[in-house]
Write a structure and sequence with these properties.
By secondary structure, the protein is an all-alpha fold. It has one domain. It is globular, with a radius of gyration of 16 Å.
Length: 178
C-alpha cells in the first residue's frame, strides 16, 4: 500500500541551491573556518534575503530531498554490512545536534530525528513534516544542520571530503540527461 509520504509525491525543490549552502558549510569546516567567516555568512544571508517565499520553499524542499538522498545512500551502505541505518545514524546525529544548542534548539531535535527516521524508512521528509503543519523559523537552521551532518557523515565514511556533494551533482546530471 502506498503512503501519502511516498517520495514520488514529493516536490524535489531546488536541490542545487540547497546543495550549494551545504557544500559551502562543509568547505568552511574543512578549511577550519567553521562557518564563522563573515564574508561567507554575508553571501548566504544575501542569497536567502533575495529569495521570494516560493523560492525559499523550493530551497527548503531541496534540503529535504538532500536528506532523503543522503539517508537512502547511507541505508544502502549500512545494509551492505548488515546494519540498520536508523540504529547507527540517527542516535549519532541526535547526539551531535544536542551538542549544538545555539544552532539547534532542544525542542526541534525530535522533529529532525523524525525527518531522519522518515527518510531512513523510505518516506519523503518534506511530506512527513507537512503532516504536522508549516515549517517554523526555529526549524530552518536545524534543517540545514541535519543535511550538513548527513553529508559530513557520508564524507567521513568514504574518506572523501567531496563525496556527498559529488554524489548529488552526479544524480542531478543523470536526471537532466534523462
Amino acid at each position: 500500500m502506498s503512503s501519502s509520504c511516498d517520495p514520488r509525491y514529493a516536490p524535489a525543490g531546488d536541490v542545487g541551491a540547497a546543495l550549494m549552502v551545504i557544500d559551502s558549510r562543509l568547505k568552511a569546516v574543512y578549511d577550519g573556518t567553521s562557518g564563522t567567516d563573515p564574508e561567507q555568512q554575508q553571501l548566504i544571508d544575501q542569497f536567502t534575503a533575495s529569495l521570494s517565499p516560493r523560492a525559499a520553499g523550493e530551497v527548503l524542499d531541496g534540503a529535504c530531498t538532500l536528506i532523503f538522498m543522503f539517508m537512502n545512500w547511507l541505508r544502502m551502505a549500512y545494509e551492505d554490512h548488515d546494519k540498520d541505518v536508523i540504529e547507527y545514524v540517527v542516535p549519532n546525529l541526535v547526539a551531535t545536534m544536542r551538542m549544538m544548542p545555539r544552532s539547534v534548539r532542544p525542542e526541534v531535535i525530535p522533529t529532525m530525528a523524525g525527518l531522519l527516521v522518515a527518510a531512513g524508512t523510505g518516506l519523503s521528509p518534506s511530506l512527513w513534516r507537512k503532516q504536522y503543519g508549516e515549517w517554523t523559523e526555529k526549524e530552518m537552521t536545524p534543517l540545514e544542520a541535519t543535511a550538513f551532518l548527513l553529508a559530513e557523515h557520508i564524507n567521513r565514511l568514504t574518506d572523501d571530503r567531496d563525496f556527498a556533494s559529488r554524489m548529488i551533482v552526479e544524480a542531478l546530471s543523470n536526471a537532466a540527461r534523462e
